[in-house]
Amino acid sequence: MPKTRIYQNSEFVINETVKLSDDAFGHIVRVLRLTEGDEIAIFNGRDAYQYTAKLIDVKKKHASIAVIEQKSINNESPLNIHLGQGISRGDRMDFTLQKSVELGVNKITPLFTERCGVKLSNERLAKKREQWQKIVISACEQSGRCIVPEVAQPMLLQDWLQQETSALKLNLHPKAEHSIMTLPMDRANDSQRVRLLIGPEGGLSDEEIEQANKADFKDILLGPRVLRTETAALTAITTLQCRFGDLA
Question: For residue 15, what are the domain limits?
C-alpha cells in the first residue's frame, strides 16, 4: 500500500486519468518530491473509498494521476458525534479540531459564547473557517479516514442550541449527576447520534448552561478535576467512543 495519502475533491474512476489539484500537486511533487511512476493513495472525502493511483505526466507546475485500484475503507465509528466547540484562542482550537477528527468526530460547529474571547470580521472568519477545514482534511489524511467531517459555519451558541435534532444532547458540568460511563443505556441506545457541547476557556456561563438545559442538553461529569477546553473535548469524545462507539 502506498505510504503517501492525499485528499482531492474529485471523482475517481479506475483506469481514468485525473489532474492533480494545486494543493495536491504542491504536497506530492514539491514537498515530498515524488516522481513519475510513484504510487499514492487518494480519497475525495465524500465516500468510504480510497484509491491507489500512479503519478504521471509530471511537469514543473502540474501533474496527473492514473487511477489503478479502488478499495472500500470501513473505519467510521457507528457513533455519529457533532461537536459544538466554543471558539478558543491560539492553537487550542486547531489542536481540538485535529485530534477530535482523529477520534472519529463527524461534524464540528465553532461556537461564539460569552467567554470565547475571539472576535473576527466576516472576511477573517471565512478565512479562519477555511483554515480549520484544511486542518480537518490533514487529520483525515493522517488517520486513514476517507469521509471528511465538515467544519460548519461558526454561529452563536443560542442558535446552535435551537437546531432541531434527534441526537442525544450532552453538556459537560462539574456537578452533573451522571458521567458518560453511567448514562442510562436505554436513552443512549435510542440514537447513534450525539451532540456534544464544549465551552471555551473559562467555560460556559451559568446562563448559557441554563439555556442548554432548556434545550434538552443533559449535564454530564468527566471527573473531579477541572480540564482545559481542548482536554475536555478530547476526553469526552474518547469516553463516548469507548462507551458507544468503536474504541476498545
Answer: 5-72
